[in-house]
TrEMBL record:
Signal peptide: none
Keyword Transferase: yes
Keyword annotations: Transferase
Name recorded for this polypeptide: Group 1 glycosyl transferase
Upper classification of the organism: Bacteria, Pseudomonadati, Verrucomicrobiota, Opitutia, Puniceicoccales
Domain of life: Bacteria
PANTHER family noted in UniProt: BLL3647 PROTEIN (PTHR12526:SF636), GLYCOSYLTRANSFERASE (PTHR12526)
Family matches, as InterPro entries: Glyco_trans_1
A Pfam family recorded for this sequence: Glycos_transf_1
Glycosyl transferase family domain sequence ranges: 159-316
GO MF term (any one): glycosyltransferase activity
CDD domains documented for this protein: GT4_PimA-like
Length: 340
């Protein structure tokens, strides 16, 4: 009986096609907004702001009434993302099971294409997302970057770095190669050091046996509240996220706000988080376990510098604010509407 109920629950929430999948619910919301747009009085609405996968019907309705359409791209454009993830499938065939984006339907991909074509403006959270847009879109649309901000919480501050014993290296996110987890495992395997404790927090995309079979020791932490994540961050020393495809990963902003120095790739969308002098961590190329291992090893050899980096990271987070994001976003909207 329990098995049957679980199968029913799974079928109702199955990716894309099931009636209660996020994709179908989002489509229903899009159609509801479109209906409201069509029922609006002349001049009542000046612009519609919508997100990827939930904009098509709204934008079509807005176009019928001459209303401006602003499109929020939270992650890299699908063509660029598909190329990168298919390359990862070639690098790590066994990890393809952790990348569900590879199975997006043609219907969903065509919807994404049509949405961005209908937009008058495209708002991106990072240079990585902006660079992923098709050249024709960048030539013919108003495209802007508005960086998500940090919200440092004085309640949580990274611990004092231990003089002895292992450094705690923290990864937070879904356990997928889209976020570079296989590269982390390979880097830790190469170092083979008892002076590193790899802590992995997030939802599994494959069985736990799959991850354990990678042959790398790690401490697994299950998903928890945001408060719980910040608490764990405060008990660690370094945050790592060598993602292949992101938009602007909020978790790296949270880690910086707690005071953790970072090891990230440009594809995390965190180009502004790494100080030029390296005081807040390091940016490494994607697909480079060698570079990741080198940076982890640097931390091991420079324990006396980590506490200063933690302080610098927290200070940098205080400079990257949500009000700045809001100001940039409002300016984009004003530009589209022709307002000063």
């Amino acid at each position: 009986m329990l098995s049957a109920k679980l199968d029913l629950f799974s079928s109702l929430h199955k990716r894309e096609t099931a009636p209660f999948s996020i994709f179908r619910i989002y489509q229903a919301l899009d159609h509801s907004v479109a209906s409201s747009i069509r029922q609006s009085r002349e001049g009542e609405l000046s612009a519609v702001y919508a997100f990827e996968d939930g904009a098509l019907a709204s934008f079509e309705a807005a176009g019928e009434k001459g209303i401006k359409r602003i499109y929020d791209m939270p992650i890299a454009y699908w063509e660029a993302a598909a190329r990168l993830l298919n390359e990862e499938k070639e690098r790590y065939p066994e990890w393809s099971v952790t990348m569900p984006g590879l199975t997006d339907s043609q219907e969903k991909l065509e919807r994404k294409t049509r949405e961005i074509e209908l937009a008058d403006a495209v708002v991106c959270p990072s240079h990585f997302v902006m660079d992923s847009l098709p050249e024709q879109i960048k030539r013919t649309k108003t495209c802007a970057i508005s960086h998500f901000g940090c919200h440092p919480d004085d309640k949580w501050t990274a611990r004092k770095t231990p003089e002895n014993g292992p450094l705690r290296l923290l990864f937070v996110g879904s356990l997928t190669q889209r976020k570079g987890l296989a590269d982390i495992f390979e880097a830790v395997r190469r170092l083979n050091s008892r002076q590193i404790e790899l802590v992995v927090l997030g939802s599994t995309v494959a069985s736990m046996e799959f991850y354990r079979n990678q042959g790398v020791p790690f401490t697994y932490k299950s998903p928890r509240s945001n408060e719980g994540v910040l608490e764990l961050m405060s008990a660690c020393d370094i945050f790592i996220l060598p993602s292949i495809v992101e938009g602007r990963a909020l978790v790296q902003l949270e880690a910086l706000g707690v005071g953790l120095p970072l090891i990230i790739t440009p594809n995390t969308g965190g180009e502004d988080l790494i100080a030029d002098d390296g005081s807040t961590g390091f940016s490494v190329p994607i697909r480079s376990p060698e570079a990741i291992a080198e940076k982890i090893d640097w931390f091991l050899g420079n324990r006396d510098k980590i506490d200063a980096m933690k302080s610098a990271s927290k200070k940098r987070a205080q400079m990257i604010t949500w009000p700045k994001y809001q100001q940039t976003l409002l300016q984009v909207i004003k530009t589209i509407l022709g307002e000063p």
